[in-house]
Amino acid sequence: MSCLDNPAEVRRLEELAFRGWPALESRDFAGWRLRFSHGYTKRANSINPLGPEAQCDPEVVSALEAPYVDLGQTPTWRLTPLAPPAIRPLLAVRGYRAIERSLLQVCPLHARFAADAAVHIYPAPTAAWIEAFCLHSPVPPQHRETMQRMLAAIAAPAGFAFVEEAGQPMAMAIGAIEGDHMGLFDVLVMPAARRRGLARRVTESLYAWAWGHGARFAYLQVVATNAAALPLYADQGFRTVYGYEYLLPP
């Protein structure tokens, strides 16, 4: 049975990813999860289906949109294979359009992934890590406090990988472990350091770190058009389990 035929497996991976990149507030309503983080990142400010049985009619759609409208935010729907089929025509009538397709991929970990001595992995983000992340992610000034609160909410063990050279940040990433899975988030290689294999070195150092903490699988979420990252992840053993789309109103 494929994962798409098994909603329980999709739901399990969704819950891992929700906790790996935690929103500041979550509410469940009518079979949907609403996530709120003051507008910082689509993923943490989106409406997500919890199962095919999620309620789906114009009144429910309006009720799900309302809290975002009240906050002055654009309602953002994140539709995974758990979404009931009737939701798409309902959103289409309201003028929603898909803006981005992403993939959730999973890779088995193994002891052959080796840590790189140049990659330092910290249990919490250092001041230099946060400064580099804000500059290169980039994080607008109005979202920096929210970003730091979200990073602090990631449950231990978390690993904040960082490579510096002559005091300058070169690459970074986040690993978040829950049970036997590690979530990989925000892999960044600075423009001056690209084409040096740093993305591989940073990610594989996190895989080795996660293996030492008992993780046996890694998962990630990547934009489907990310031509730079997808070949690396495929070479490391990642395979797509399911895709999802973000939809925005006109």
Characterization of this structure:
The protein has an eight-stranded mixed sheet, sandwiched between helices. The chain has a three-stranded antiparallel sheet with strand order 1-2-3, with helices on one face. It folds into two domains: 3-103, no CATH class; 110-215, Gcn5-related N-acetyltransferase (GNAT) (Aminopeptidase). It is α+β, with helices and mostly antiparallel strands and 250 residues long. The relative contact order is 0.19. Helices cover 30% and strands 30% of the residues.
Question: What order do the helices and strands come in, and which of them pair?
Answer:
Layout: H1 7-20, E1 25-29, E2 32-36, E3 47-49, H2 58-70, E4 77-79, H3 87-93, E5 97-108, E6 120-122, H4 127-136, H5 144-153, E7 158-165, E8 168-178, E9 181-189, H6 198-212, E10 217-223, H7 230-236, E11 239-248
Parallel strand pairs: 9-10
Antiparallel strand pairs: 1-2, 2-3, 4-11, 5-10, 5-11, 6-7, 7-8, 8-9
